[in-house]
Amino acid sequence: MAGLLKTTDLLGLTVCKTPYERLKILYTRILDRLYHLSHQGSPVKVEPDVKNLGEQLQGGQIEKVILQAEKELSLTRKMVQWKPWDPLLKEPPANQWKWPV
Fold it and tell me: Which of 14, 19, 29, 38 sits 20 to 30 Å CA-CA off 96?
């Protein structure tokens, strides 16, 4: 693949050898999780050119975008467990959502 980096120059973040495939898998999994939350799927248009993909996603280097997508996937799994859409167990105090108090 033309333009593949040898290093990201970012500590602890290695170059992904198949960034397009990795992001496609991660975002598909994220959408699958989101579908379970919202009961609506949403197709994602993916750019096959790695450089353009990073620019379109405004994430800089593609490895940073992959890292963010992995964190998003992790969060969607936690949201399914936490069920934030369920009603509160008890009513919040009167001024809990008021700022400043």
Answer: 38
Helix, strand, or coil here: 73? helix
Whether the CB-CB separation of 30 and 70 falls below 8 Å is answered with no
Which amino acid would we find at residue 97? W
pLDDT digits (tens, 9 = 90+) for 51-65: 777 677 676 777 887
Residue 90: other Cβ atoms inside 10 A: 6
CA distance linking residue 83 with residue 38, whole number of Å: 12
Residue-wise pLDDT tens digits, 68-91: 888 888 988 898 899 888 888 898
Tokens of 14: 């290695």
pTM: 0.53
Q: Is 38 exposed, middle or buried (0-12, 13-18, 19+ CB in 10 A)?
A: exposed
Per-residue pLDDT of 4-13, as tens digits, reads 678 888 888 8
Domain range annotation of the chain: 19-82
